[in-house]
Amino acid sequence: MKPQPLETQNLSRSCHEVLILALLATGPKHGYQLALELEERSGGEFRLTYGTLYPILHKLEKGGLIEGVWDEGSPRRKRKTYKLTRKGRRHLKAQTEAWRSFFSRFFTVVEGGEA
Amino acid sequence: MTRFAPLIRVTSDRLDLPQPIKSRVLLEMAADMEDLYEHYRGQGTAAERAEEQVTEQFTFSEQALRRLTQVHASPYRRLMDSLSERTRALWERAMFIILTAFVAVLTMEVMMTAQPFSDASPFIWVVAALGAAGLVIASLRIYALYVKMDHDVRRLRRGLDALIGISVFSVVIGHYAVLVEMFRIARAVIDEPERAFVGASICVLRTAPVMNLALLVAIGAAVLWFVLSRTVTRIEAAEASVLLAKGGAS
Predict the structure, then answer these.
(1) What pTM was estimated for this model as a whole?
(2) DSSP structure class, residue B144
(3) Contact B70 A51 (CB under 8 A)
(4) Which residues lie closer than 8 Å to B150 by C-beta, 6 or more apart?
């Protein structure tokens, strides 16, 4: 399947969304865990502020790519866990291919090769 | 109460979201704040420093809060947000003027043409004006609460007391009108006793529409006040519940 081209006008937003989906692909997580894990796994390269994280999470949830579940059983407080949906997995796979293709063409131009 | 209640309160004041979305978002943030705090404490950070770090990370810029608002905005809200502040204010003012003019014209047309009202005591105009005012106030509240979804607690109860006042006042006016008309006609009948039966009929024709309309306005305003108050109370309770949510103090 030919990868869909990336929307280059919103590369940053697209990148953050894919990173969050990729983290959720390994298992359900709370919001704060996503921010911490992203920073840890990228060696500090990617740092999401909570002001950026929450709009992305809520947007992905509204789009049906992730599902937020409230933990009613906690004796201390209600916590929200996010998990990847089937639609989210398909979207992650498509976006991963799109990014791979994007960087392949990017380096082709930068390194002076032919497409 | 969570240790971060003051920060949540400040965020709540700055976050322009309708209920119950707002309290869900704030509850999520509160839980993440507590978990992040415990994460830092688990790493050996001192309590005060951990609290400082969490506060720093959860103090949002205006841009961040605006992005969060946009994600949850209704289509109408998104349309309004796309307009400039001035255009939005002009649009709302125009809607208010059109609504008021429509209600006023409709009320006057009914009053002047419908048979029961054309024979009624002049007090019916006062009751009709109260009813029209109540309708405009209720419409504005309904627009703010359900269409624009402006759930700022500082503005929630605006106009609600006026609805109760209209309800009470219309009944008072109705009773006063009945009293005045009956007294006036009774005086006339004393002077001309042979016109007693006609006088009684005139009294009914002049007072019944006033009392009926007064009761209609009173009941309508009271019902609207009740429905809107319930919505406002629910919103206020949702706001308060976030601040009173138990935290995991350790």
Answers:
(1) 0.74
(2) I
(3) no
(4) B18, B144
